[in-house]
Amino acid sequence: MRKLNLDELEIFQAVATAGGVTAASKLLHRVPSNITTRLKQMEERLGVRLFNRCDNRLSLTPEGNLLLNYAERLFQLVGEAELSLSERRPMGTLRIGSLESTAGARLPTILSDYTSRHTDVQLEIRTDTTAGLIEAVSNCEIEGALVSQPFWAPRLSAAPIFREELVLISGSQSKPTNRIQDIDCSTLICFPQGCSYRKVVEGWLSAEGITPIRFVELASYPSIIGCVVAGTGVAIVPLSVVDSLGIRDEVQRHRLPIELSRNITHFVWRPERESLALRAFLSLLQQHATDLGTVTGTMFQHDSAVATVPFESDAGETETMAPNGRSPRRH
Length: 331
Description:
The protein has 331 residues and is of the alpha+beta class. The chain has twelve helices and 15 strands. The radius of gyration is 31 Å and the shape is rod-shaped.
């Protein structure tokens, strides 16, 4: 049980600074007997004398001086807290999750912009697979995350942010072809299970009757691409990663079917946990999404396993990408 509260500290501080109960009662608009009773109750609970009483005069004991110092500091902090909250500006710690590809190719400029605008917010960034990030948001370990299709996110809000083009890459010594049957896919270099891009390529290969003999699971794109450059196997990566790492001349890029190559990165969050800092981050994401010429859209709830986002095809038709890797619907 707490032995002090702010109301009692206010009474104690008033008596200490005013020099007596009568003067303090006028400042606080309380009757003197109430103040005297509250002071005695404080001393009894704390087990120390706060005032020396002599000839109807009060003076602070050493313990009273110590408590007065703490009281003044506490009231200063309370004032600062009330002022900060009344100003309604983003503050505190904001924990954001991201795919590694997005963190490396998309986020640096956005994070720089955000931290310069909102100096009272401490940003914490963690990277993981789509499945891991959605679990972290659902469990309130982070406030929001950038994830890729396909994903399953019941009770989370989601907004489309970036459109990524996925490509299959192999070593530079490979044949420049887009026919999957002509590419050695016996070794697939990828992130661990839970990666949405891995689901895409596994579904594609399975539909083509191709089963990789081995999987090399790594935790970063530089490691994955390093293995591809060395000729270890093939990998599926966003084209933005290839561009950001400057490796166009070191790998062969093979196009995926259009219904698989276009993938929308979404920002997901728990709508009931929206803070000012989170709202400011989402707003900035959407501003940069427009600047990047990517697909944007209204916020919506994901309560099914299929996440679809419309976008314009090269021919001007509207396509809907099916996360299961099937042919797109045209409408």
